[in-house]
Amino acid sequence: MAHKDDRLAGQFRSTRPQNRFCGYNIQQPGELVNIFMPPPRVTPQSMDTALSPPVPLTIEGYCVLHQMMHFRWTAWQQLPAEQKQRLIQEASALLAKMERNAAGQSALYSLLGHKGDLMWLHFRPSFDELKQAELDLASLGISEFVTIASSYISIIELGLYESSIKTYKELAEKNVEPHTEEWDHAITDTLNRQKEAMRPRLFPEIPSHRYLSFYPMDRRRAEDKNWYTLPMEERARQMNEHGLVGRRYAGQVKQIISGSIGFDDWEWGVDLFADDPLVFKKLIYEMRFDEVSAVYALFGHFYLGLRCPSAGLGKLLNGELPKP
Q1: Topology (CATH) of 43-324
Q2: Which of 61, 62, 85, 279 would staple 123 via disulfide (CB 3.0–4.6 Å)?
Q3: Is the pTM of this model over 0.85?
């Protein structure tokens, strides 16, 4: 029986029953065939069969950590004023330093609703540095009054649908086999060019807008509707239409997409920044009607927060919302 996830055409497979074990196909007792052999030669005519659905290339930037926290208001309010002030000064100094960090910033938001009181957003060049940000916060005296409600780990990501399609077809026309040295060199060149061109989007400053809406999401993988089995050209078409909706909100909202496959429970994280929170509703509502969202999108919890700069932390912890 052919394995349902085998992406190669039938002529490249044995029709005999196969058992998969430790990287080999067991064709019959005593016979082991290495399944990690180089793939068959790809031509323009066979590319869709041999690589379908081809994986779009991605480029990555800052590593991202969201920390959602509950604040123990009752315990905090029982502290003497002098101790509160000392703890606020210590936390404000660290937040101010993180806000100014040239190699990846941090920002603090006051959350609305029961899901949390505070949300820290961290951009860093590496996961090691994200962990250090966690440790720095945990070392604060104010951490005694904080409990973690949730968190989300991801990395800023841009999908290269058009570049991938173009590069794959060019290599197929040259009869370059996938994952050979020549193939890998061409892919690396494409990624390096795109990463340099997209550097401002991969390594952005945290927008200074008043409001942030964060949510995780997936692409549907149900039996009848599976995003990952669509041809790459069709996925590219749908994503292009999806992006056209977002472009109509340029100047009103800033969007940063991060990938989290292998890092957290969902596939992507979405951060939206705006000075008017109503824009979040209008944008997301309109996007629900395009094909890629209506058919294939699944969403997690939404978190809505107001930016709290370091200079306003004292006001926030004394029950007064900082002004923008």
Answers
A1: Alpha-Beta Plaits (3.30.70)
A2: 62
A3: no
